[in-house]
Amino acid sequence: MRFRCFLLVASAGLVLAACPAVAAPTLSGELISDLKNLESRLSSDPSGVESQASQQAERLSGGNASDRWAGALYLQLAAGAEAAQEKYAEAADHLAQARNVSGVDTSQRDRWQREEAGLRLQAGQKDLAGELLSDWLQRHEDGDSLWLMAQLAAESEDWEMAADWVERAQQAGGDMSAKRLAFASAVMQRSGRLDQALAVLQTQLDQAGDDPEAWRRAAALAQKAGDPVRAAALWEAAWRKGLLSGDDDLERRINLHLAAGTPARAAEILEQALAEGTLTDDDAHQRQLAEAWHQARDRDKALAAWQKLATSSDKADDWLHLGQLALAWGKELLAKEALTKAEQGGAAEAEKWLAVLGNAQDSKEAPSPSPSQRQ
């Protein structure tokens, strides 16, 4: 499975705005003027800015605290110019140098580290981007970054790790778009966390309740999670909303009720569909109806359905099954008729069952033994 990365957009930004809240080394008026001049040329001459900013950064690297701070700002300018030219790896390298300059405060290092992670990702350096971002997230809580970490783990097919990041992103709150919900559901399914995947799908249903495919996915996932009752309930709700229709959806509705342990409801739906001609009244559907009534323990309806099936198919096995049920349920006349037809049709066991029926009838006709005979 492929996922589109939520790319971070690295921005060189206003260089002088990068000055930290705490007091930074004072810059000379000449350096400030040069920095502003280069920044103003970023969009029109990124290549020239890259060259000049890199040279200035190198020149100032061995100076005092003020020079080193100015050098770090020139490195950020060079990174911005390179990013504008889609030279993302070079831009990331310059930001890495900037955040490692001695004297740069922690908050500024973190800002540059976050931007570097975005550039590494755009450069295709996903492993390094993940390392940088994971480290950054130990000190910060940012929803977009958490989703990105989940995305990177999914790209590597590390589903357990991806699921962990998704959980953390969900806990952080923020935007839960349809794409993120779909992504979260897929990750949870791949990691085997089916209950959580189903919870995400339920959220999708709450947000987009008129999407039939979302209802289908939710029902399928509930069944996969071992919750056939919930699967049937979801399908039934979608059916009643008019989101599901047609023969295939109707068949699925019936089968889900059978799986959920509500065979009487399945039989009622199927019986109505056959009566209205919605589904073909063939042997397969009649057999399903008979089995549904049997599971529902409605003996009269089960026998009637099996009799209709046996009459239609005229198969020896169907007559035999009808005869066995009728005998077990005390319907001896029906049992005799069905077993006789089964024997005529070549069912090997029919003769044995007819003998059982005969013995049962003989026992009823025999006089009750006296107390002395019982002994």
Automatic annotation (TrEMBL):
Gene3D superfamilies assigned: Tetratricopeptide repeat domain
Q: Does the keyword Signal apply?
A: yes
Q: Where is this region: Disordered?
A: 356-375
Report which superkingdom the organism of origin falls in.
Bacteria
- Keyword Signal attributed: yes
- Kindly indicate where the leader peptide sits in this chain: 1-23
The record's keywords, sorted A to Z, are: Signal
Its recorded name reads: Tetratricopeptide repeat protein
